[in-house]
Design goal:
Inner membrane symporter YicJ, MFS_2, MFS_trans_sf, 81% helix, Growth Hormone, Chain: A, MFS_dom, membrane
């Protein structure tokens, strides 16, 4: 049975709420620790990494439990409904550090609520990803669903990256998180309601955890894609983690360029995210078409190569006093990032089908847990890597939002958000051609062992 447009769009809507939280945790937590609480950047990166590694540990458990859940609303919806509440409660809490807590107490407070928030995120993201393989087995429908998802995700990026920093600057971090919390919950709950009549596999899996894991691990193309998407995510997470610092130290608004007024009204960081979102939205239909013409993998490799070229061009322009030029480059960055956002999410449910068709087991939750594993590891490692690089080159933390940095530290920041991510994306493009495609062809010739 074909999905309706409402069902495709409804599935994609949940990602708007999910992405707002993802952007907040990638963009603001490290900056909050270093620029507001005065935590040394190396320690702040380690704290963020520790919490996100804990988040990785919960993925298999939630995937296993959601596969075995049996309710009148299906296997996934109850997890998403409850998880949305847990996620926003933790997000608001982590920025609500009581005054005069002291640095050790502040660190413990932020880490504790960050853990709660990431548990809620896992409760939403794992079942949500599993639905992509459950509600349709049509590869073209999945591409259309993912385009809707990325369109809504782009709105989430706009809210998380463009609106929240401005709100945080004017109202405070906790107040900003409180303002966007209802949007996060509403997007996820409305998505559950709009997809309530979509096809679903109601029968819970009876497999034990080890048997589930074995079936997933035997799908070697899927395992390769998990690793490669994690590598891509590391590049993007480095850019995201470093961007708040770049907006302060590498991009100077002189007030005499076309978008200076917008930069002053929104803050430079918000303007750059808005430009990025415009590019991402404009590119979604293009990547769907290119996936049909070049194959999904061919379009993804093209997108990664264009992304590398864009990052190299951005490196040649930084530091910059032309906020308009940089915003234009960020529009192009959003367009190239569309391939990373959309195409892998359209590929991996196709690989789930292979296991289900050959074994009869519907374990989309187990696949979804491992799919997010690579991304979460990358997102956990990125703040640690960035913090270590900046600390090595003498980055100075502050409680005032900005302080003087050495040229060496600024150069390290610039490379961390341009040339280093470009090299990582190049590695993933090579892996797609040299590792993933041969494994896929081999699996297509021979069934799972």
């Amino acid at each position: 049975m074909k999905l309706t447009t409402i069902e495709k769009a409804g599935w994609g809507l949940a990602d708007m709420g999910v992405v707002v939280f993802v952007v907040v945790k990638q963009l603001l937590v490290l900056a909050f620790l270093t620029s507001i609480l005065g935590v040394p950047v190396g320690l702040a990166g380690a704290i963020t990494t520790f919490v996100l590694i804990f988040d990785v540990i919960t993925d298999p458990l939630v995937g296993y439990l959601s596969d075995r859940t049996h309710t009148r609303w299906g296997r996934r919806a109850p997890w998403m409904v409850l998880g949305a509440l847990v996620m926003v409660a933790g997000m608001i809490g982590l920025f609500s550090v009581p005054p005069d807590t002291g640095q050790a107490g502040s660190i413990a407070w932020v880490a504790g609520f960050f853990v709660i928030a990431t548990i809620g995120f896992t409760m939403v993201a794992i079942p949500y990803g599993a639905m992509a393989g459950e509600i349709t087995q049509d590869p073209e429908e999945r591409s259309a669903m993912t385009a809707w998802r990325m369109g809504f995700a782009s709105v989430g990026i706009l809210v998380g990256g463009a609106l929240i920093p401005g709100l945080a600057a004017s109202m405070g971090y906790a107040a900003a998180a409180t303002v966007v919390a209802p949007l996060i919950v509403a997007a996820i709950w409305l998505s559950v309601w709009l997809t309530r009549k979509a096809p679903r596999i109601a029968q819970p899996s009876s497999l034990a955890p080890r048997a589930m894991a074995r079936l997933v691990l035997l799908n070697r193309p899927f395992m390769a894609l998990v690793v490669l998407y994690g590598i891509m995510t590391l590049a993007i997470a480095l850019i995201t983690a470093g961007l708040p610092f770049a907006a302060i130290y590498l991009i100077t608004d002189t007030g005499d360029t076309l978008l200076s007024g917008a930069a002053q009204a929104l803050t430079t960081l918000s303007l750059l995210f808005a430009a990025f979102v415009v590019g991402s939205i404009l590119s979604q239909a293009v990547w769907v078409i290119l996936s049909r013409l070049l194959s999904k993998v061919g379009a993804l490799v093209l997108g990664l190569l264009l992304y590398m070229a864009l990052l190299y061009g951005l490196n040649t322009q930084l530091p910059s006093a032309d906020v308009t030029l940089i915003a234009g480059l960020f529009v192009l960055a959003g367009m190239t990032n569309g391939a990373y956002q959309q195409i892998p999410w359209a590929i991996y449910p196709d690989l789930m089908d292979v296991t289900r068709n050959e074994t009869g087991e519907a374990i989309e939750g187990a696949f979804s847990a491992l799919w997010l594993f690579g991304q979460k590891v990358a997102n956990a490692v990125a703040p640690l890597v960035l913090g270590a690089i900046l600390a090595l080159w003498g980055w100075e933390e502050t409680t005032q939002g900005r302080t003087e940095q050495t040229e060496a530290a600024l150069g390290a920041l610039q490379m961390s958000i341009t040339l280093v991510p470009a090299a990582i994306l190049g590695l993933s493009a090579i892996g797609l051609v040299a590792v993933y495609l041969p494994l896929l062809r081999r699996m297509q010739r021979a069934p799972l062992a």
